[in-house]
Every structure is written in structure tokens, then in C-alpha cells.
Specification:
heterodimer, A: 17 helices, about 45% helix, elongated
Chain lengths: ~550, ~100
């Protein structure tokens, strides 16, 4: 190879290498989308290429729409630094931070402080896979929310990010918590109701026979002892009444009431109860609707809440009762499944006392839950109020902040119909004169049956005893003389009191009926109450109470 | 023609660097390439050496591209001093562009 030939080869080689480099460069420009146009040699016109840039922009736009259009908050964060790299519109709206604020934050800053340790512990182990976790986050302004976070690892420009989709489950969790609470109350209520039922039967016997003893004993030490038994029995009876109220198994006799009237008749008692240091005011808005409820029980609710308020204000303060009409809408009933949307009367009871924290608030209606020292409270006051309000078709809510006082809100359904004829309260007749009528007593508890017989015979009545509704029907059919009154238990095996009464009234239309019960299982509690005007005697009863009630029913002019 | 004027290397030479950029109107890559030229040769100089730049719009003069063997836009051609060099694309990779043009930054 001559030097000349060598030089030619070298130059050709050089030219080839250059052309290859150029081709590579062209290829790179093409793949990077840096070419606008190609000149067509045949037609000698440049063909404009569809712009890769535009295509990219379009594709970016599409993803931005998907990201920003998502109804669920989303954000992208750097796996290593936890810096938030992108947020969507829903996140901005939901958390309240502006986009700029978000992008200057790390994930750590939206975690609730209580959760940070746990959240950090989770991070290293979860670098790759998709996962869903429940977290507490902090919104702008400090409100904390419970969220379910679905996140997935993504790679962007060589860095590791996680894309998180957020579902706020705060309301959902509160609802669940309420539901759990309601179930717990229901269970405790059943238990309390069951115990109270048996207690009432026992107390009727104890108090009844104690009365018999008292009547027969001369003054002296034994009479003292019998009186002590009586006092203890009465205290036990009061406690069972509260248990029944809480368990919503007591018999309510509802009437149409103006809560303003109820409050004004109660206010003297309330003032006396809570002492001079607390200023009491009652605010009744005009045109206040009426409610259908048991007056006595409602008074009990007011008194219990007033006592609670007094105990929260040991150094005095003010207690305000407010009455107004309200409409409950779906948003309220969504979290209070026990009430329907509609018109209600609101009784708000606000104090300026110590208030309570969230933990106490959560348990406030639980029976036997008390913040008072041992022996100071039964822990039944508020749970009783809760039971009564619920049994009356209403709802009770509490709002409180430590140091700033407490407001209880009692919602009762507004009564729309015409006021029923109020129950006569005037007919309390003392059983002075000896009775001569015949009473048919239907009671499955032998001890109560015998006690009742004893009491009624002493008062002069002729007593027919039946241990079951079937036996009662037999007696009603075969007894030769008149039967003036049927005294029957409401809940009995086989047949309920009202059904028995209906059957006997067919045989003897002039028969008066008086129900007694210590507990109302399905017969009454199913509907919650007896109709207004039904004669009813709550167990445990005293001999006097029984004879008075019977006299009252028999002496009523109309059947 | 400038192309024939000298055979000496660009380095150290006072002879202007003669460039021609073929573009397709205001298409995005063409616009980027024009902007990049401004960045690469501020004040019309490359390391002190004067630079002459001609911009040819292929949409208006397609034949000029064909005559120069240019079929893609944008293309930057170093016309002189020799050797003739071509760079295709929007000239965003400044280092590679200067290297291809034989201009030492």
C-alpha cells in the first residue's frame, strides 16, 4: 500500500465515521421529537410533522384532567424526603391548604402528631408495594380527620415517589362509634330492664307485707325495724324506676304537653334544687310547638340534667333553659339513626360549668358512668334521661368544652294533631269507706297474687284470684255475681293483659280494667306506652296506692 | 462563496463562522432552535470568533433545502470554514452542538 493509497483509505474511513455520527445524531433528534418537518424530495414540499411537543402537551393535559378531576384528594410525594411533589384540586379543597402551601410541605406536616411515630415506622418496610392504611391527618386550621390512604409506588425521572389517594372516613368512623355505643347501651338496657322487672315483683311483695306488718305492730323496736325495711324498700324502688327508665322499658303514659308550661311549673323546684349561686333563666321562643310525652318522665329528664349542671358549677354560674321549634334534616338524622327528619321541639340546657373532655363526653350516657366521687352519684341520672328521651321518640345530644360549659340538647317530636283530652288528674279518691265490690285479680306471680288478695280483702273487696288469663276467663264465665273490676298484669304467659281485657269485656261490658306492671316487655314496650286514658298501676305498689287507684277507677263516672 | 474562502481551521482564525439554520416556519422545534442559537452565540460571537447566521424557512423556500441536501427541519449547517458539518434537531444539547460544529467553548 502506497502512502497515497493509505491516505485515501484514511480519508474514506474518516468520512464514514463522520456519516455514521451524523446518522446517529439525526436518529437521536428524531427519537426525541426534535424534528418539525421533512422535505419530500419527490414533491419538493416540506411535510410538517405532527408535533411531538403538542402530543406530549396533550397527553400531559389528559393526565392533569384525570388527576385534578378526581373527586378524591390525591398527592404525590417523594419517597425519600417525603416532600409533596403534586396535589390535585380535591386535596386543595379538602385540606384547605393552597397548592403552593401543599408543595412547600412534607408529608410529615399533614400527619397528626399522635400518628407520626407509627407512620414513620411503616415507611421503610413499604417502599415498593401498594398499600392502604388508616391515618389521622391535620387540615389547615388544625382540625384532624381520619383518612384511609391508598398509595402506590411510582418512578418519575429516576426518582421514587408514592401516589396517594385519600378517602376521608371521619364521619364514617363517628357513625360506627355511635352505632357501637348504641349497641352497648341496648345490651346494658336489656340487662337492667330484666333485673328491674324481677326486682319490682320482689319489692311489691316486700313492701306489701311490710305494710301489713306495720299495721299490725304496736309502736316499739319491731315497728322501727319494719319502718327501716320500708324505707330501704322505697329507695330500692326508686332505683329500679331509674333502671327501667334507662332501659326504656317503663310504661309511659304520654299526653300532649306544652314544654313551656312544664318548665314554668318546674322552675321553682329547679331553683331550689340547684341553690342560690346559680342563676336560672328560661327562654321560650314564641309559637312553641307541643310534644306528646309522659309528663312525669319529662320532668325527670329536666331535673336530672339540672342536677348534672349544678354539679358542674360548684362555684356558681348560670343555667339557661331554652325552648324552640327546630326542623331536623337528613344531615342530623344521618348520625342519629334513632330519629326521623321532621319538626321537633328543642330543649337546650346550658351551663357555664367545668365542661368535659371528649373521652367523658363519649361515655356520659352510659349507666353507672360517673365523674363524681364514689357515693356522690349513681351514674344513672344522664342514662335515665337518655332512655326517657329515646323512648319518647326523641334524641339527646351533648356539646361541651373543658372550662367553657356544657349544653345538652333534647329533641322531642313536635306534636302535629289535635290535643287529646288530657288525662284527668283530679280523681285521687282516698279509700275511706269500706268497699263492697268484686275484683278479679289476674297475676302469675303467686306472692303478689296472695298479697293483693290480702290487701283488697282488708279493704272490704270480694276477691277472685286467677293465675292465668285462661283461668280468668273461666272465672268470668262461671262467677254467679257481678265482677266490677279486672286487675291484671300486662305481661303474662299465653295472653297479654289488653287481650284478656277485651275478651272479658265481651262477657261483662260493665267491667272496669286496671293494669299493673313492673316491666313492659313486648305488649307495651313494643309501642312504648299504653294509650292515654288507660288505667295503669306501676309495680311496686303500696297497699294504699293499690286501694286508692282501684277506688279511683271504680268511682269514675264514665266507663 | 464563504465556503471556498479558506481552508484554515476555525480555531484561532479571525474568519467568521458561517452557519445556516433551516427551519419550518414557527413550528415549535424550529422556534426552540432559533432561540438556542441566540444562547449559543451571544452577540454573534463564538469564543471571540464572529459568527454569521442565515435562517432559511423551508416552508417558503423548500428548494433551497433540497439543493443543500437538507430534508429535515430544523437542521443547522456549518458552511464555513470547512469542513462542512450538520446538526439535526432543536439544538437543546448545547455541548453536543458546539462539539459537532467544531467550536471549542
Amino acid at each position: 500500500v502506497t502512502p497515497r493509497e493509505n491516505e485515501i483509505l484514511r480519508q474514506e474511513n474518516e468520512a464514514l465515521r463522520r456519516r455514521l455520527a451524523e446518522a446517529e445524531q439525526v436518529n437521536e433528534a428524531l427519537t426525541k421529537g426534535q424534528i418539525d418537518a421533512v422535505v419530500d424530495e419527490a414533491y419538493q414540499v416540506p411535510l410538517l410533522l405532527r408535533q411531538a411537543q403538542e402530543a406530549l402537551q396533550e397527553s400531559e393535559e389528559r393526565y392533569r384532567v384525570l388527576f385534578d378531576g378526581s373527586p378524591l384528594p390525591m398527592y404525590l410525594y417523594d419517597q425519600e424526603t417525603l416532600a409533596i411533589a403534586a396535589v390535585n384540586e380535591a386535596a386543595v379543597l379538602h385540606y384547605g391548604y393552597s397548592r403552593e402551601e401543599f408543595l412547600s410541605k412534607t408529608l410529615r406536616e399533614i400527619w397528626h402528631p399522635d400518628q407520626e411515630a407509627g407512620a414513620m415506622a411503616l415507611l421503610p418496610a413499604s417502599s415498593g408495594e401498594s398499600r392502604s392504611t388508616v391515618r389521622r391527618h391535620v387540615k389547615k386550621g388544625g382540625a384532624s380527620i381520619t383518612v384511609e390512604v391508598f398509595s402506590h409506588a411510582v418512578q418519575l425521572a429516576g426518582r421514587s415517589y408514592r401516589l396517594s389517594v385519600i378517602r376521608d372516613i371521619t364521619d364514617h368512623q363517628e357513625l360506627e362509634e355511635r352505632f357501637r355505643q348504641a349497641q352497648k347501651m341496648e345490651a346494658v338496657g336489656r340487662l337492667a330492664g330484666g333485673v328491674a322487672h324481677d326486682f319490682n315483683n320482689l319489692l311489691t311483695v316486700i313492701l306489701g307485707y311490710d305494710d301489713v306488718l306495720l299495721q299490725g305492730l304496736e309502736p316499739g323496736s319491731l315497728r322501727e325495724a319494719a319502718q327501716e325495711v320500708r324505707r330501704a324498700g322505697e329507695r330500692a324502688a326508686a332505683l329500679t324506676r331509674q333502671l327501667l327508665a334507662f332501659s326504656r322499658k317503663q310504661t309511659l303514659v304520654p299526653e300532649v304537653l306544652d314544654l313551656g308550661d312544664v318548665m314554668s311549673s318546674l322552675s321553682t323546684m329547679v331553683e331550689r334544687l340547684i341553690g342560690e349561686d346559680v342563676k336560672v333563666s328560661v327562654v321560650v321562643s314564641p309559637n312553641l310547638g307541643r310534644v306528646k310525652a309522659d309528663r312525669g318522665q319529662l320532668e325527670q329528664v329536666v331535673m336530672n340534667l339540672a342536677v348534672n349542671a349544678r354539679d358542674a358549677m360548684p362555684k356558681g354560674g348560670s343555667l339557661i333553659f331554652e325552648l324552640q321549634n327546630v326542623e331536623l334534616d337528613d344531615t342530623y338524622t344521618a348520625t342519629h339513626a334513632e330519629v326521623e327528619p321532621g319538626p321537633y321541639v328543642l330543649l337546650a340546657i346550658s351551663d357555664t360549668g367545668t365542661g368535659m373532655d371528649a373521652e367523658t363526653k363519649k361515655r356520659i350516657f352510659e349507666p353507672f358512668f360517673t365523674t363524681k366521687e364514689a357515693g356522690k352519684g349513681t351514674g344513672l341520672g344522664l342514662s335515665t334521661a337518655h332512655g326517657i328521651v329515646h323512648q319518647s321518640g326523641g334524641a339527646i345530644d351533648v356539646y361541651s368544652e373543658p372550662g367553657r360549659g356544657t349544653t345538652f340538647k333534647v329533641y322531642l317530636p313536635r306534636f302535629a294533631g289535635d290535643a287529646a283530652v288530657p288525662r284527668s288528674l283530679s280523681g285521687i279518691h282516698p279509700a275511706l269507706r269500706a268497699a263492697s265490690e268484686t275484683v278479679l285479680v289476674v297475676e302469675d306471680e303467686a306472692a303478689i297474687r296472695q298479697l293483693t288478695k290480702l290487701i283488697l280483702q282488708k279493704a272490704g273487696y270480694t276477691v277472685l284470684l286467677a293465675e292465668s288469663p285462661v283461668a280468668a276467663e273461666g272465672i268470668a264465665g262461671s262467677h254467679p255475681g257481678p265482677i266490677h273490676l279486672l286487675l291484671t298484669d300486662v305481661v303474662m304467659p299465653g295472653m297479654r293483659g289488653p287481650e284478656l281485657a277485651e275478651r272479658l269485656l265481651r262477657l261483662r261490658p260493665d267491667l272496669r280494667v286496671l293494669y299493673m306492671s313492673g316491666y313492659t316487655d313486648d305488649a307495651i314496650a313494643h309501642h312504648g306506652f299504653l294509650d292515654a286514658g288507660t288505667e295503669f298501676l306501676q309495680k311496686p305498689f303500696t297497699p294504699n296506692g293499690l286501694t286508692q287507684k282501684i277506688r279511683e277507677v271504680l268511682d269514675r263516672s264514665e266507663p | 462563496l464563504k465556503r471556498e474562502s479558506a481552508r484554515s481551521p476555525a480555531r484561532g482564525s479571525r474568519e467568521p463562522l458561517s452557519l445556516r439554520l433551516y427551519v419550518a416556519g414557527q413550528a415549535p422545534n424550529s422556534a426552540i432552535a432559533i432561540r438556542n442559537l441566540g444562547i449559543l452565540f451571544p452577540g454573534g460571537k463564538a469564543s471571540g470568533q464572529p459568527v454569521e447566521i442565515e435562517i432559511v424557512d423551508l416552508l417558503k423556500e423548500p428548494l433551497r433545502g433540497l439543493l443543500d441536501g437538507v430534508v429535515l427541519s430544523p437542521t443547522l449547517v456549518r458552511l464555513g470554514p470547512p469542513p462542512v458539518r450538520r446538526v439535526v434537531g432543536n439544538l437543546s444539547n448545547h455541548g453536543a452542538v458546539l462539539l459537532a460544529l467544531g467550536v471549542v467553548p
